[in-house]
């Protein structure tokens, strides 16, 4: 289809000419539409989208509107300017009426509130409260997604509990680990009843970072629950009842999926025992990634190939390509057919049924639905012999999507899909050049016929590579913002995607067809052939990882103005390439694009000249992570103390939370990484920054990897996080420093960290009680005391040393647990503000009620990441303290 697109042209007023006279000829002062590739109705659609963007992000929307007007409007045409403004206002009003700025949670019934956030009696401990009892719920299955690591994520609606008339507000997201077969295959319309632990959906509230809370609220889901069947509870499956039947199409799809898995497993195999290469096939055909291990997805993600395993418009394009290939072969069998029907339209007729079938087989996820809608628009425009179908079809499809669901505009999946297609449109001239016949040979000559098949094959491969490069270039700002890693191994896409589209997908479709015909032997053979390149790819990635070269360096996450400047420069590229001279507006837009692209990252260095120190308690859920940044006497730097973390193999706190916070319009550089102690909720989130950032030095306390309070045999077995840390440090050639009480670490002139604990006397303490305690001092003023996970023994040892402890801010020991309750510590520190790092509705009720009460008696305000999200405390050059909360 790419060959039917009309190549985009440069804006007339931006075309470079041979001199001022030529510029005056091509850019009449009263020209109605200087941006010729876009029709005015398309400009108006973009203006409406900018207005919708402004409803949630006013600065972003206004900037997009201004740039669009500069690119496409003649300021002398007041009528078009008025229409442009009217569409912008319409988009804003439409979004305001249909979608709140940020969806708020509805009123929660009392029975839900007590189950989600139980109250703990005054003086109670952190284990008080009905957290483990669960709640009997029943709801209707709306969606069922198969996730990596044998998980099913079900979206339930109309959720109720026995004895209560009011339903659960909104929808419930239920994630089931190792689900029974009927749960894994549950379809829309079935009723599921189970006893689960319910929680309100709360994301990690860190400014400038994408989080799940708004995503699920946009979809009407406000609560989530977890369940699992892994044999840990006496081998019993959690109690549940699944009633009703899914639709006939869903059941037919399930039967086809089971037959496919049986063909992959062979006669004597089990579907759960298929190889990781075989697990790629159900991921590509059905969107079922439950057979893929988290380690496999991690390898694929670090190689920048993760998008190739997530069903998207690219895969639907592969299906359409198979349809067009079928039309090409039909031209040899029935050449007279194309005297009545052009080959492009015949290809469309062959592609549409295959794409619709793939949409059904893939479970119709939003990404495939949107791609199919775009394809339908393109097909309709192509059938009507309309030119420039790519941009027109894209805009009409996006307009329809956001009319039905305005929140889809803020869905990263739609953004990636739409921007990548727009990038492909910019690459249309290159695609046309690759597809053209070599000059100098007549169409029917022997030289033309000789090797024509090979030339066509090379043309297709190069065209797919060009499409991939264009799409990746267009979505680069979105990828840098949403996904950590700069794509060092992006060239693998140029090899893997043609293999995927021309070998793996066609053979997988052929195997699926044989499965549907009831020919398992033929299907198994075809699936085996399709797996070959997948196995080779995974082996290559495994070897690269073992050699330590499969790294994914982190880049600065661009601010929206920088992304807008980048896209502006891309749009101007067709005009700049043949340049000799250019108009004033072209010069203005080039300078504006360069300024926007570079300005946000340069501004902090040029404008922030005043000395200051900032302590940021990052919201990492149930864990702790403290970032310290400073500018003092001309020296600048950053330190990361702990990174939070979870034991789950499906979520990397360092990659998905800590790294985006640290790289928000900032270079991925740290002067120090410090680990207070090696517990998972402090160490695991450090591993990704430790591996991917530009790094100065690494430090830890005495306890570098074993619990000193354990018996020697248990203590000699380091945790997985500790082993990963040691491997990273060995690969990078970094020897960690060991800090102990009495050390003073100079960070900058007049800025230091005083190490107050653990003592160098070798006293046997547990991992928590031997955690580092650090006191941040600037210009002689103690700013903060950070206590790690100290408990009673560690706190007593700290107090007995009689070290000065006073500070403006106290980061409470052990997340404010009852086991770390220390009134004397609160008195000795006498803070102006106490902070606790803890997760919302955590299972231990941190911070404990008696800790809260003791602080309240002393009139010490308490802020927690659970209630306030990220907490940033800043001291300016006058040592005045200011505090900002992500949640007010």
From TrEMBL:
It is a multi-pass membrane protein. GO terms for cellular component: plasma membrane. Residues 63-229 form the DUF4131 domain. It is found in: Cell membrane. Residues 284-573 form the ComEC/Rec2-related protein domain. The chain crosses the membrane at residues 60-76, 81-99, 309-334, 346-361, 367-384, 389-410, 416-436, 457-480, 500-527, 534-556, 562-579, 586-606. It comes from the Bacteria. InterPro entries: ComEC_N, Competence_DNA_uptake, DUF4131, RibonucZ/Hydroxyglut_hydro. Its main location: membrane. Keywords: Cell membrane, Membrane, Transmembrane, Transmembrane helix. Pfam families: Competence (PF03772), DUF4131 (PF13567). NCBIfam families: ComEC_N-term. This is ComEC/Rec2-related domain protein. It comes from uncultured delta proteobacterium.
């Amino acid at each position: 289809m790419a060959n039917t697109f009309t190549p985009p042209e440069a804006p007339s007023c931006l075309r470079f000419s041979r001199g001022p006279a030529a510029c005056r000829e091509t850019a009449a002062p009263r020209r109605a539409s200087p941006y010729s590739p876009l029709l005015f109705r398309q400009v108006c659609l973009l203006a409406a989208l900018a207005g919708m963007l402004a409803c949630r992000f006013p600065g972003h929307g206004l900037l997009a509107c201004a740039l669009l007007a500069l690119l496409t409007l003649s300021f002398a045409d007041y009528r078009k300017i008025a229409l442009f403004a009217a569409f912008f206002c319409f988009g804003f009003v439409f979004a305001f009426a249909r979608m709140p700025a940020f969806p708020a949670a509805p009123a929660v019934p009392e029975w839900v509130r007590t189950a989600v956030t139980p109250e703990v009696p005054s003086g109670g401990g952190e284990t008080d409260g009905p957290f483990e009892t669960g709640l009997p719920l029943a709801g209707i299955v709306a969606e069922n997604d198969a996730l990596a690591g044998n998980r099913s994520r079900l979206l339930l609606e109309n959720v109720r509990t026995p004895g209560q008339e009011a339903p659960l507000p909104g929808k419930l997201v239920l994630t089931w680990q190792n689900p029974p077969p009927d749960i894994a295959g549950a379809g829309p319309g079935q009723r599921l009843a189970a006893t689960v632990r319910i929680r309100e959906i709360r994301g990690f509230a860190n400014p400038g970072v994408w989080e799940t809370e708004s995503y699920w609220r946009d979809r009407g889901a406000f609560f989530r629950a977890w369940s699992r069947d892994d044999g840990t509870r006496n081998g019993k499956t959690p109690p549940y009842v699944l009633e009703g039947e899914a639709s006939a199409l869903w059941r037919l799809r399930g039967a086809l999926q089971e037959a496919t898995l049986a063909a992959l497993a062979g006669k004597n195999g089990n579907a759960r025992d298929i190889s990781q290469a075989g697990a790629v096939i159900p991921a590509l055909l059905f969107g079922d990634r439950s057979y893929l291990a988290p380690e496999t997805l991690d390898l694929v993600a670090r190689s920048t190939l993760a998008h190739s395993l997530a069903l998207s418009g690219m895969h639907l394009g592969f299906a359409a390509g198979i349809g067009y290939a079928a039309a090409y072969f039909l031209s040899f069998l029935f050449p007279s057919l194309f005297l009545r029907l052009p080959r492009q339209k015949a290809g469309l007729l062959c592609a549409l049924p295959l794409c619709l079938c793939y949409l059904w087989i893939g479970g119709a996820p939003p990404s495939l639905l949107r791609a199919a809608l775009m394809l339908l628009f393109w097909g309709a425009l192509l059938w009507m012999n309309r030119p420039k179908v790519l941009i027109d079809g894209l805009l009409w499809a996006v307009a329809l999507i956001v009319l039905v669901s305005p929140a889809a505009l803020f869905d990263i999946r739609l953004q990636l899909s739409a921007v990548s297609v727009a990038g492909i449109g910019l690459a249309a001239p290159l695609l046309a050049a690759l597809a053209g016949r070599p000059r100098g040979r007549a169409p029917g000559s022997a030289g033309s016929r000789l090797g024509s098949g090979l030339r066509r094959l090379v043309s297709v491969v190069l065209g797919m590579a060009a499409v991939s490069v264009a799409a990746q270039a267009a979505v680069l700002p979105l990828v840098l913002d949403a996904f950590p890693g700069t794509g060092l191994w992006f060239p693998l896409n140029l090899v893997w995607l043609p293999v995927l589209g021309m070998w793996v997908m066609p053979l997988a479709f052929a195997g699926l067809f044989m499965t549907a015909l009831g020919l398992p032997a033929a299907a198994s053979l075809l699936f085996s052939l399709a797996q070959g390149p997948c196995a080779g790819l995974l082996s290559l990635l495994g070897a690269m990882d073992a050699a330590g070269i499969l790294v994914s360096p982190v880049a600065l996450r661009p601010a929206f103005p920088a992304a807008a400047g980048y896209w502006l420069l891309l749009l101007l590229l067709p005009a700049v390439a043949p340049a000799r001279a250019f108009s004033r507006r072209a010069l203005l837009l080039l300078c504006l694009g360069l300024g926007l692209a570079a300005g946000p990252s340069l501004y902090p260095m040029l404008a922030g000249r005043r000395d200051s120190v900032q302590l940021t308690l990052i919201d990492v859920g149930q864990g702790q992570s403290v970032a310290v940044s400073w500018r003092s006497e001309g020296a600048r730097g950053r330190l990361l103390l702990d990174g939070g973390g979870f034991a789950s193999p499906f979520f990397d706190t360092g990659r998905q939370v800590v790294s985006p916070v640290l790289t928000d319009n900032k270079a991925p550089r740290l002067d120090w990484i410090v680990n207070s102690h090696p517990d998972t909720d402090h160490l695991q989130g450090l591993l990704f920054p430790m591996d991917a950032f530009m790094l100065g030095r690494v430090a830890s306390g005495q306890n570098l990897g074993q619990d000193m309070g354990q018996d020697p045999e248990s203590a000699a077995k380091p945790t997985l996080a500790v082993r990963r840390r040691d491997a990273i440090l060995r690969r990078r050639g970094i020897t960690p420093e060991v800090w102990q009480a009495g050390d003073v670490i100079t960070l900058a002139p007049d800025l230091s960290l005083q190490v107050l604990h653990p003592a160098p006397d070798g006293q046997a303490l547990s991992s928590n009680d031997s955690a580092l305690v650090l006191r941040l001092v600037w210009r002689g003023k103690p700013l903060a005391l950070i206590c790690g996970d100290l408990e009673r023994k560690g706190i007593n040892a700290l107090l007995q040393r009689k070290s000065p402890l006073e500070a403006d801010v106290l980061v409470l020991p052990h997340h404010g647990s009852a086991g770390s309750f220390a009134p004397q510590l609160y008195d000795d520190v006498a803070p102006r503000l106490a902070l606790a790092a803890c997760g919302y509705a955590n299972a231990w009720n941190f911070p404990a009620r008696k800790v809260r009460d003791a602080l309240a008696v002393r009139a010490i305000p308490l802020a927690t990441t659970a209630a306030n999200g990220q907490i940033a405390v800043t001291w300016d050059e006058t040592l005045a303290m200011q505090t900002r909360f992500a949640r007010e």
